[in-house]
Every structure is written in structure tokens, then in C-alpha cells.
Amino acid sequence: MSEPILELRGINKSFGPVHVLHDIDFTVRAGEVTALVGDNGAGKSTMVKSIAGIHPIDSGEVLFEGQPVTIHSPREAADYGIEVVYQDLALCENLDIVQNMFLGRERGKYGLLDEADMEQAARKTLASLSVRTVKSVRTPVASLSGGQRQTVAIAKSVLWDSKVVLLDEPTAALGVAQTRQVLDLVRRLAEQGLGVVLISHNMNDVFEVSDRIACLYLGRMAAQLPTKDVTHGQVVELITAGRSGDLGIARPESATI
Amino acid sequence: MPEEQSMTDTPTGEKAPDSGAISDFGIDTTSKSAGEALREYVAKVRGGDFGSLPALLGLLVLVIFFGTQSETFLTLGNISNLLAQGAGIVIIAMGLVFVLLLGEIDLSAGTASGVAASVMALHLVKDGNMLSAFGDGVFYITCGFMLIAAVLSALLRIWPGVVLPVIGLVILLLGVPPNAWIEMLLALCIGTSIGSLTGYLVAKVGIPSFVVTLALFLAWGGVTLKYIGQGGTLPIRNDKVLFNVANGNLDTTGSWVLFLLAAGGYTAVVLNRHFSRLRRGLVAQPTPLVLIKVGTVILLGAVATVLLTQNRAVNPNVIILGVPYVVPIVLVLLTVGTFVLDRTGYGRHIYAVGGNAEAARRAGINVPKIRMSVFVIASSVAALGAIVYSSKIGSVSPSSGAGNTLLFAVGAAVIGGTSLFGGKGRLRDAVIGGAVIAIIENGLGLLKQEAAVVSIVTGLVLLLAASVDALSRRRSAAS
Ligand SMILES: Nc1ncnc2c1ncn2[C@@H]1O[C@H](COP(=O)(O)OP(=O)(O)O)[C@@H](O)[C@H]1O
Ligand SMILES: [Mg+2]
User: What are phi and psi of B151, to 5 degrees?
Assistant: First the structure.
């Protein structure tokens, strides 16, 4: 059993009057893929953004490698080695692939850019992800397809010495072959000892790659279990009703956003 | 910085770091043929990325039109006059490109430049005693304003925005005696102070730049009037240095030295970059195309230098020759600015914020700081433009920087191909667009057209350029 690398304890998050996350407990273990599932609007993306320092949390504790931390900005998250692939991809369309992959962390000395170095590194990373559909790493993101953009976003997150990678629905816009590549990649990241969080609606994918499944129901953590201990049916029930047999929230009908 | 990316279990990993890359991005590593590059360019233009192509075509049409309609237009005297006339607008436009790149606007750049010009002229005319030039109240308010500007810049750690206002403050408080270089520095400091205020209001207070700068457009016009007084005119043509900025020329030797420095520097930079990319197996233009480009620039530069070192005086008793000082001034600003935008992390972040501010924020970029800094740049550069246009006119009046100044500068940037939607544009756009505007003004003047016609035509050209911009955006969104 591997160590928890990232832990959330009792996280609450509201947007004005809307209470989106309720007392969330969540554990990411190094070397494991944790699938985060839940219906649309359950709060998965909000949870990821709270971890990444995009949204400040209202209360609760975040532990990274056992130490309590407060992450105020994406930069701080990156400094801890936490990388996020956002559902709304967050790429600059006017910049090319290399420029996007190194955005905010450009290589070079004295504020000057080392384009050659960045271009080679970007190309190497993309090649290692077996990306063949992109003709040139100098293509502006504006002229890439949805799937290609997704690949760039993922490549961006593995370019760094990351310890935790959070992927928010990375396969939603992909074709069969590219989904395959992303799932393989997810597994490989975990095998290298990273803590991986995969948000997905596809139960087959979830059961194929994950070691654990965490299920959000209306902003509450309904259950977090080893994948081998649950069935498809139970997970679907947890997603839709917040409860399945003796798993899940005690009284889901009283749960409100 | 992690040198090795985390995926090392692929065969492409260590032994032959580039072999995998080459097969996967073939077009990246093999040098493109000229034909391929041309096709790519055509595809780019068809896809809506016109760049400065429309402006260059417009420039050509205008030169042919005025060249055939007016006998004076293509004379050497008029061409050098044209350079001096256009330089002020071009410089202000270059500063505005930074603001436009963020999808913001600075409507106050014109009147802000007027404030800088009036302080510069007052310092000269009133022997450096600004206390008596302004009167007590205005003097202390001005000093207080510069102090506040420095503090605002310090809050966001924009250090040039702190240093320059403080220098300006020291010049004012010490009553430094008049000296053209001090006056120009003071103008720059005033511009920086103004930019700090604008930038802070937009980036930190969060008022839309349109509103902030519309308000400040009015306010700075008033300040210039207050400084100079109704109907006043401050002559600066008696100071040799200030007058020569836009009216003086390099001597023949100087002109050729400039040519050697500029053409040589350009050639060295372009070729060095090109061949080092080829060596490292990176995306590169076809070598013949690069050579043609460099050759054209050298040729044009040489022809211009030959022509401008001819005597162009109409009066047979005097000799006027040499490349006007405004040429190296604009070239230096263009080079420095382009370098900042293309080669530094700061420049990259400007494009990123203009392209997608939220993505930039998530990438850890300090978006408010970038946003404030571009206004500091725009106003500072506008002050430099003010030095040039004041020098050209030879005096500063309450209407300096008012009227069409700003619209022409925004027009220059947009006509050149800078997008009003942000994220797209280059400094040379401002130069090309500025040339279009200067030629329209100059050419219509030679054809004895009244000011009304000049305004109408320039307005229509700007509208046309903005339509091209919107069209290009729609096209690239559709593709
Ligand atoms: N920036 C925001 N401001 C206000 N409400 C938000 C914001 N982001 C998300 N929400 C709300 O939070 C809830 C959870 O959204 P989200 O985290 O995107 O769900 P999921 O990713 O699980 O589909 C939704 O009700 C959504 O409307
Ligand atoms: Mg979501």
C-alpha cells in the first residue's frame, strides 16, 4: 500500500450562496490512479481547481506529503509538483504548441527565451506520448482540433517533474485511438510513482485504469474505495443516488447543493 | 528545471534524443523548400492571418497614386519631410501596440503625450524653475501625483515605473537648469507617471480601460491647457538639440555608419538565428527565402541611404542632406521593442494574457502586473513621440497631442495589422500603418485637399483596417 501524497480533509467551498463542496475528504496515493467520478455539477472540476489554487477554499485542510499546505495560486501548486489538465483546456490560441507548453515557466537566462531548448524538449515529450497527428510543434493552437489540444494540455503537464497530475475529463473529446493513448499514459504515470487523479464519465475506462474510485454526489464524497471491491452497478448507483447498499451517504435524499 | 521529461520508458528517451522527434515531426526538422513555404504562407493568409499584407499593399497603392498625381510627392525633400512628419505618430503607435496586444485601449495616449510635451517645453522656457512656471499649487499637485505614481508602480513591483517618476520628481524639486537632454528625460518621466496611474486603475481597480482612458483623455487635455495657459505657445526651436530631433540629419558618414550598423546587425541576427536553428534541427524557413529577405532589406537600406545623402535643398544656396535623425530613433525603438516582445519572457506573457487571460493566470503569470505594465509602456513611449512631434513643429501649445494625434496612432497600429481583439500584432505594424497615415496626410496636402478631406479619408482607411481585422478573426474562427 503506497503513501498518501495528497490529502484533503473536510474541504468546503462555496460560490456566493452556492455551497458546492461539503466536508470533502479525499486521498491521492503515489503510484496509484484514483478515479474521481460523479454526475455533471457534482463538483469535480471545482474540487480540482480548489486543489490547484485557482479557487481559494473556505475551510478544511490540504496535506501534501503529510504536511499541511495552503496553495494560493497555480504557480504554488506547480512548485509542489501538482499539475492540472483542465476540462476547459486553458491554452492560449494565439500561441503555438511550444509556447503553450512552457507558458509561465519559459526556459532561458536573464528573462531571455531559449526557444531552441524549449522546442526540442516539447518535441521530445510529444514524441514520447506518440503524438503523430500534429505536424509541427510550431503550429498555433488555434488551428488544432479538440483532441490535439487535449494532447498538448496533457503533454504540458508531464513536461515537468510532477508528483501529482489531476486530469479533468481528458478523454471526453478524444477519438478511440487517442483515448487509448491517454489511458496508457495515465497508467504509465502511475507506474512511475506519480499520484494520478482521473476524472471520467466512462465506466469502462475508470475500471480499466484506476486503483481506487472516489465518488462525488452533490458536492459530498459518497465513497472512496478500491476499484476491485466495487462493481459497475454500484458505482453507477453511487453517482446517481449517492448510495448503494451500505455504501455511500447515509441519507442522500437530504443532501442539497 | 527538469532537464529530462518524466517519460523515460519510451525508446526515444535517451540514446538518440532526436530520432523519434524527427520521424514524428518530419516537417519540423527538414528544412522546407521555398515552394512549401510559399504554399504555407498562402494557406495562412487564406485562413485569415493577413499580418501586415493589406497595409503593405495599401502602401504601394498610395505611393503609386500620389506619385502619379503630384510632382512633389516623390521628391527627396518631400520624402525626408514625410519621415519627420510621420515619426511622432509611429512612435506613439508602437507604444499603443503593447496595450492593444492585451485587447485593451489607451485613448489618453495623445493628450498624455501633450502633458509630457508641455512640461518639457516649460522646463526649457522657464529656465528649469518649475515652481514659478506652474505656481505653488499646481507645482505641488504635480509633485504629489508623481510620488503617487511611483508608489502605485511599487505596489505591483514595476520598477521602471518607480524609478522614472522619482527621477522626474527630483528634477522638478531641485530646479535643475535647462538642458535639452534633461528636458527629454523629464518628458519621459511624466509619461511613465501617467502610465502608472492609468495602468493601476485598469489592472487593480478594475475599471475598463475604455472608461479610464476616456476620462483621462479629457483630464490630460485640461492639464496641458492649465500648464501652458489659454492661447500660450512655448517655442522650443531655439534649442538646437530639441529642434534637431525631428529636423536634423546625420552627415554623410553618419548615414553610412547607420546603414552598416542597421543592415549588418539585421543580417547577423537573422542569419545567425537561421543557421543555428538548422544546425539544431529546428523549424526553419528555407535558406533561399531567408537570403532573399536579408538581401532585400540590405538593398532597400542602401538605396534609401544613397538617396537621402543627396542634396535635397530647393534653395541652391544651401545644402540639405543626410538621413534624418528620426530614422535611427524609430529603428532603435522598433528593435528594442521587437526584442522585448519576441525574445523575452515578459513579451511572451503579454501575448499570452492577450490571447487567454485565464490560461495565463493558471500558468502562474501575474496578469495584473502585465496589464498595468503595458499602460506604463504606452504612456512612456507616447512621451517620446511627443518629443519628436514637438520638435517637428518647433513649439508646444495647449493643443499638442490633442485632436487627431491619438486616433492617427491607434489607426497606425490597426492599419498595420494589430488586432483590436488582443493577442495579435507586432511593432512593425505600427511603422507600416504609420507610414500609410503619414502618406495620406502628406499626399492629400500636396494635392491641396483641405483638412476635412484628410480626416474623412483617414477615418475611412481606419474603418477599412478594422473591418479587415474583424474579417480575419471570423475567418480564423471558422477554419
Ligand atoms: N466559478 C463558479 N461560480 C459559481 N458557480 C460555479 C462556478 N464553478 C462551478 N460552479 C457551480 O458548482 C457546481 C459544480 O460544478 P463543477 O465543479 O463544474 O461540476 P463537475 O465538474 O462535477 O461537472 C455547479 O453547480 C456549478 O454551477
Ligand atoms: Mg467538470
Answer: -65, -45
Q: What is the pLDDT of residues B174-213, one digit of tens each?
A: 999 999 999 999 999 999 999 999 999 999 999 999 999 9
Q: How is chain B split into domains, by residue range?
A: 53-248+324-478
pTM reported for the whole predicted model = 0.89
User: Which one, of B404, B437, B418, B458, lies nearest residue B99 by Cα?
Assistant: B418
Could you give the ipTM of this predicted complex? Answer: 0.85
What separation in Å is there between the alpha carbon of A41 and the centre of ligand 2? 7
Probe residue for ligand 1, chosen from A13, A19, A45 as the CB with the greatest number of ligand atoms within 8 Å: A45
Please write the tens of the pLDDT for every residue from B277-327: 888 878 788 888 899 999 999 999 999 999 999 999 888 888 999 999 999
Task: Look up residue B178 and give its three cell numbers.
Answer: 535647462
Q: Do B21 and A135 touch (CB under 8 A)?
A: no
Please, is B219 exposed, middle or buried when counting C-beta atoms within 10 Å of its C-beta (0-12, 13-18, 19+)?
A: middle
pLDDT at A188: 83
Q: Between helices B367-393 and B76-101, what is the axis angle to 10°?
A: 160
Q: How many cross-chain Cβ pairs, A to B, lie less than 8 Å apart?
A: 152
Residue B10 has pLDDT above 80, yes or no: no
User: Which residues make beta-bridge pairs with A29?
Assistant: A4
Q: Which of A167, A178, A173, A209 is CA-nearest to residue A83? A: A167
CB environment B94-105: b (16+ within 10 A), e (fewer): bbbbbbbbbbbb
Q: Cβ(A12)–Cβ(A59) under 8 Å? A: yes
What is the CATH topology of the domain spanning B53-248+324-478? ABC transporter involved in vitamin B12 uptake, BtuC (1.10.3470)
Q: Rounded distance, CA B319 to CA B316, Å?
A: 7
Residue B168 to residue A93: CA distance in whole angstroms: 40
Q: Whose CA is nearest to atom 25 of ligand 1?
A: A41
